[in-house]
Amino acid sequence: MDKPSLKKEDKEKRLFSLPVDIVNLLLSNELSEKLIDISTKYNLTGDLKNKVFIKDFRVGKLIEIVIKTLKGELLLKDFNKTLEYELKIDSETTKKMSKEISKQIFSTIEESLKKIHKEKHLKDTPSQFFKEPFVKPEKKESDLYREQIK
Question: Domain segments of the chain: what residues?
């Protein structure tokens, strides 16, 4: 019983460690409304007159991708590829949709988003994974166990 509450506390701690403008955007209705409008424009939805029927759950995927990007869990450089793959849309539609998302959502919190992604990128650099530089193994001239090729 204690573990789920710890996970919830961890999620809240991570959420509130983000810049204030990003937290406000994540907790607002404005984000989901804009994403539903974009989804409708790019035909990711079924008949959304009453905003009830969602085709193939692609709207939910779009919202999930944008939220992960806002939280720094998905890097901006991977945003377009992820949209194209997860939503199963062509690259031209991906570019148009990405520009619209950038204009309507990401541009409102541009500086905070850059800060988060810069920090995340620095944490994920290979130099932190390897304590010693990679050294190519020396090639042996002969191997006693192999037959010579002539």
Answer: 2-129
